Amino acid sequence: MRVRRVSARVAGAALATLVGGGLGVALTPAGAGAAVRTAPAAKVVTTSVVTKAAAASCATGKFQKQVEGYLNKIGGYGTLKVDGKQSATDCAAIKKFQSRFGIKPASGLAGPTTNDVAKRLAASNTAKCKAKKTGLTFCVDLTHQTTWVMKNGKVLVKPTVTRTGMNNYETPAGTFKINKRTKKEWSDPYHVWLPYWQRFIGGRGFHQTTTYIHDMWRGSHGCVNLLPQDAKKYYSLGKIGSTVKVFGRRPGT
């Protein structure tokens, strides 16, 4: 088989095509007799293009406008434009919110769970706890299924989500004292470990949830379920004798 010689002009043109296609390498082909110009620098993608691409990757949920408003009221997620239109800023804020409160998937979609959690947190009135003016008080709002911590009459830990006793296993309202604390308590009735256990009445107390906390239909058997980071935080703050104030009534009980 005869091998045809490639002319310098043809070789140079072919190489220019390759370089222009994105290889970004300046080579001089054998026998070309002249250097090939380097490829031009890649174009810089503008901020507007990046922003549009980021927004496009985050779908707009049914409750977009409501969630925007709730997150503004809760605070800590930036200022969202309440217009019901997804943007890169909205997407990032919603993802951050979902990650903080254990909502899966944390995709930035303003779905029913995200809306429900944001609505409950935005509606929680810390003054209703009527915490002591001195010392630490753990507050549990049964109505909104939220909880927070106050110290010397001021909010120490902002409201977070909880899941309390379901029907026939209600978490009782009232003022109690923590009377037992263990980092890992075994539940004889339910055969499960309860991390960061802080008991305040009977067999009921604070502990890290053992299931997905947003399965609200499930409920607890009277305990105050917490997300892992919240259970750990509460345990670090509590001690024997710490006050627990439970008020309101869980819907459906």
From TrEMBL:
An example molecular function term from Gene Ontology annotations: transferase activity
Pathway connected to this protein: Cell wall biogenesis; peptidoglycan biosynthesis
Active-site annotation: 214 (proton donor/acceptor), 223 (nucleophile)
Keywords recorded for this protein, A-Z: Cell shape, Cell wall biogenesis/degradation, Peptidoglycan synthesis, Signal, Transferase
Taxonomy, superkingdom: Bacteria
One cellular component term from this protein's GO annotations in UniProt: extracellular region
Pfam families named in the record: PG_binding_1, YkuD
Cleaved signal peptide residues: 1-34
BP GO terms, sorted: cell wall organization; peptidoglycan-protein cross-linking; regulation of cell shape
CDD domains per the UniProt record, alphabetical: YkuD_like
Domain L,D-TPase catalytic: residue ranges: 136-247
Name listed for the protein in its UniProt record: Murein L,D-transpeptidase
Organism lineage: Bacteria, Bacillati, Actinomycetota, Actinomycetes, Micromonosporales
